[in-house]
Q: What sequence folds into this?
């Protein structure tokens, strides 16, 4: 009898929510795999929106200066929440945890805290920061210089405590940049629907905090990295740098690498392929 496949725990990135995994969950569930998506701290049902987005008349100055209601959320809070979410799913044994984008930094923290709960960690176009290195260092690195994310953020993150998107903007050029940053290989109408589900604020502290990694913690858990070759949010050169640094730090546990010809959100643009990758035994 073949071993029972581990349950899948799916973690979204900044501005997204558990909703983004719905197409993938439908496919892996049809193949008989238990899968659950969760909301990160400050996102999804835990999101809190700045008042400036609903105040009328709309004041663009407030958009750029109002302190975010999630500015207090840091990597400690996000990591602790994720560990509790993993623990609930890991009642009968460890899970395969999958993270997208900034969710990767939270997954790294959770795995370091509780490696016994995770049989395999999968990073999908995700931050997989090195020991003691904040994700912000990679976001601001030369390899990521032409990322489109900086072009769609509004306000000074240091002032408002968050990375803010103007999701209600009617400016056609701005909306094109939003679609290009996150959904470049998705039909425009589907991309607009996805934009309507995004959270406007993601906590800056989560990007500035770092995790110290150990050989018997994060370094002990097998990992796979899925590189998205047309990603315009987290550039492929950064993704490959993350893999190289992890393998240099923990050479006895090298990263398995898969590539996708996709932009930043393949769970929406090619859910069949993502489900196929995740359905493989881990």
A:
């Amino acid at each position: 009898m073949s071993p029972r496949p581990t349950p899948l725990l799916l973690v979204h990135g900044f501005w997204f929510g558990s909703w983004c995994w719905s197409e993938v969950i439908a496919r892996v569930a049809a193949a008989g795999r238990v899968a659950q998506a969760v909301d990160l701290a400050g996102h999804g049902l835990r999101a809190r929106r700045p008042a400036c987005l609903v105040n009328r008349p709309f004041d663009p100055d407030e958009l750029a200066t109002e302190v975010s209601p999630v500015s207090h959320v840091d990597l400690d809070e996000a990591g602790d929440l994720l560990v509790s979410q993993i623990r609930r799913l890991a009642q009968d044994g460890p899970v395969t945890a999958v993270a997208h984008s900034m969710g990767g930094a939270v997954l790294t923290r959770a795995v370091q805290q509780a490696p016994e709960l995770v049989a395999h960690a999968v990073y999908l176009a995700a931050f997989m920061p090195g020991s003691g290195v904040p994700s912000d260092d990679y976001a601001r690195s030369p390899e990521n210089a032409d990322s489109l994310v900086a072009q769609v953020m509004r306000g000074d993150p240091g002032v408002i405590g968050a990375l803010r998107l103007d999701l209600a903007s009617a400016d056609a050029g701005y909306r094109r940049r939003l679609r290009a940053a996150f959904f470049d290989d998705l039909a425009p109408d589907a991309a607009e629907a996805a934009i309507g589900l995004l959270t406007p604020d993601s906590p800056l502290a989560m990007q500035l905090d770092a995790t110290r990694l150990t050989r018997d913690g994060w370094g002990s858990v097998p990992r796979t990295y899925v590189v998205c070759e047309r990603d315009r949010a987290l550039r492929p050169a950064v993704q490959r740098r993350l893999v190289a640094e992890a393998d240099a730090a923990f050479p006895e546990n090298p990263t398995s690498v898969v590539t996708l010809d996709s932009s930043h959100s393949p769970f929406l643009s090619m859910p069949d392929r993502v489900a196929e990758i995740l359905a493989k035994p881990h």
Notes: The domain at 8-279 is CATH 3.40.50.1820 (Rossmann fold). DSSP finds 13 helices and nine strands in the chain. Residues 8 and 35 are 4 Å apart (CA to CA).
